[in-house]
Amino acid sequence: MLHSTGRMRLALAAIAALSLVPLAACSSEADTSAAGASETADEAGTGTLAAAIAADDKLSTIANALKETGLDEVFSGKASYTLLAPEDDAFASLGDKGKELTSQPAAMAAVLRDHTLPGYFEMADIAAAIDAKGGPVEMPTMGGHKITFSRDGETIVAKGEDGGTARLVDHADRAENGIALPIDGLLKQSD
Fold first, then answer.
1. Contact 177, 49 (CB under 8 A)
2. Residue 44 has pLDDT above 50, yes or no
3. What CATH number should be reported for the domain whose range is 2-183?
4. Which residues fall within 8 angstroms of residue 25, CB to CB, at 6 or more apart?
5. pLDDT tens track for 16-27
6. Which of 174, 144, 145 is nearest to 159 (CA)?
7. What is the DSSP string of 74-107?
8. DSSP the chain
9. How far apart are the C-alpha atoms of 166 and 163, rounded to whole Å?
């Protein structure tokens, strides 16, 4: 088990490195300057992404799902991830379907994979990529699907391949190994 976990982490790290290239290439602004890099480092949190999610009282459903699926270990590792984290209200708005979903660890693992981007992306990075392209940008998820990001005025909207949409809310949970960008809905509800 340890051997396959090591290979999985190595593969995830490689995917993360490759995913940074398209987003960085989208930006025509000089936001990769030393000043921009130090600002990002100053804003980075301490601790792990799993701990940052657990500390956010609006993400208790996701925090519990990470523990139940074992993905908290992945988000406690060295690889960097961006989790588009549905807030608790997003699950509550689904009613019985949300309760059923959260009671199934395998289904929640699939949801989490399709809400996870390899690499560390601030909301400002995504906005800059949209602006540089002049329209929507796509990014791959750890589940092998794509999320399309676009603007609705000043708000960033994420859309999953199955049509689920959510708005990125105005705060982020930063950690040494990633960032959680809370969203107001689910991009994928199950397989």
1. yes
2. yes
3. 2.30.180.10
4. none
5. 333 333 333 333
6. 145
7. HTTSSS-EEEEEE-HHHHHTTTHHHHHHHT-HHH
8. -HHHHHHHHHHHHHHHHHHHHHHHHH--SSTTSHHHHHHHHHH--SS-HHHHHHH-TT-HHHHHHHHHHTHHHHTTSSS-EEEEEE-HHHHHTTTHHHHHHHT-HHHHHHHHHTTEEES---HHHHHHHHHHHTS-EEEE-TTS-EEEEEEETTEEEEEETTS-EEEB-S--EEETTEEEEEESS-S----
9. 10
pTM of the model: 0.77
Where are the domains positioned within the chain?
2-183
List Cα–Cα distances, 17 to 11, 13, 39, 63, 188, in angstroms: 10, 6, 21, 26, 24
Length of the chain: 191
What span, in angstroms and rounded, lies between the C-alpha atoms of 185 and 96? Answer: 15
